[in-house]
Amino acid sequence: MKHLVYITNNLINNKQYIGDHTTKNINDSYLGSGLLIKKAIKKYGKENFQKEILKICKTKKEAFDKQKKYIKEYNTLIPNGYNISPKGGHNVKGCFSDESKKKISDSLKKTYKNNPELAENIRRKITGRKLSEEIKKSLKGRKSHRKGLLLKEEYGDKSEEIRKKLKKPKSKEHRKKLSEAKKGIPMSEETKRKISQTTKGNKIISIETRKKLSNSLKGRIFSEETKNKMSKAKKGNRKLNNFQIKEIKEKLNYMKMQDIANDYNVQRNLIYKIKNNKYKQY
Questions:
Q1: Alpha-helical regions (H) of 75-168
Q2: Both ends of the chain: CA-CA distance in Å?
Q3: Are 33 and 43 in contact (CB under 8 A)?
Q4: 224-236 helix and 268-275 helix, angle to the nearest 10 degrees
Q5: Are 119 and 54 in contact (CB under 8 A)?
Q6: Coil, strand or helix at 182
Q7: Angle at 11 between CA 10 and CA 17, to 5 degrees
Q8: Tens place of pLDDT for every residue, the chain, 282 residues?
Q9: Which of 18, 72, 98, 152 is the most buried (most CB within 10 A)?
């Protein structure tokens, strides 16, 4: 495959177009796929255009990048030529000139002003739109501007202030400030549920992770139900020494398991494990 940078000349008005093209045959009839060059070809006919190869590159990226140089050199940007973008191609940073941006903006404003029904139809299609599983999969991991909407719904006018406080930390000092800013911000039930699902199955947690979790939870406001659940989870993570295990085994001869669990501030299933010699010390 050949990666070309070419120039297409209009033999009637001498306007030109720079583009890149990947092909097996360098002498094919391809003249360009830009919006303006396609309109010009339709208006004047293919016979009134001539293509010249400026450079053959090793890669497609190299050919794409070279366009910027030749667009500037041959001055093919509108209104002098048929190129809309100073870099060549669309959907890349800086691909539209200021003049192109203004023309596109004015054109869209005029279209929606003259056709209010069109704008309303687009709004209806977007609102409440359900995405297919395939599209959801392709969008997974991308940053979404809609994340901020949930924050606004939950915190109202304070959402912007909270968003700034919770932005991604960059330094230790920044992380410390974020930690202090989080204190006192109540968790929604949805957030609590997500944390619960994330931490399920994580039986062994490092001391550093525990410390981070402890610091992140300081100042949080929890419901009574959440406090009870946290208390039970804490009981289940308690470690017992050999002396306590021996003592519990003796008490099992004359006491109920629940009463022993209450005395040692642990869960009943832990006493059950000791009774059946299934309790493991880490």
A1: 98-114, 116-126, 133-139, 147-155, 159-165
A2: 62
A3: no
A4: 20
A5: no
A6: helix
A7: 20
A8: 889 999 999 999 999 999 999 998 888 989 998 889 999 999 999 999 999 999 999 998 888 889 989 999 999 998 899 998 887 765 555 556 677 677 778 887 888 788 888 777 777 766 766 666 766 666 665 544 444 445 555 556 666 666 666 666 567 777 777 677 666 666 777 777 777 766 665 555 666 777 777 766 666 666 777 776 666 655 555 677 888 888 888 888 888 888 888 888 888 888 888 888 887 764
A9: 18
Question: Which helix (DSSP H) or strand (DSSP E) does residue 4 occupy?
Answer: strand 2-10
Alpha carbons 119 and 112: distance in angstroms, whole number: 6
**Helix and strand tally (H, E) in the chain?**
14, 3
Task: For residues 131 and 141, give the distance between their C-alpha atoms in angstroms, rounded to a whole number.
Answer: 15
Distance CA 76, CA 58 (A): 24
Instruction: Domains for the chain: give ranges and CATH numbers.
Output: 2-100 (3.40.1440.10), 189-221 (no CATH), 242-275 (no CATH)
- Angle at Cα 122 formed by Cα 116 and Cα 125, nearest 5°? 140
Nearest partner of 263 among 276, 274, 280, 251, judged by Cα: 251
**CB–CB of 22/62 below 8 Å?**
no
Tell me how far CA of residue 236 lies from CA of 201, 215, 246, 264, in angstroms.
14, 21, 19, 11
| Residues ≥6 apart with Cβ < 8 Å to 102 | none
Which residue carries 């054109």 as its tokens? 107
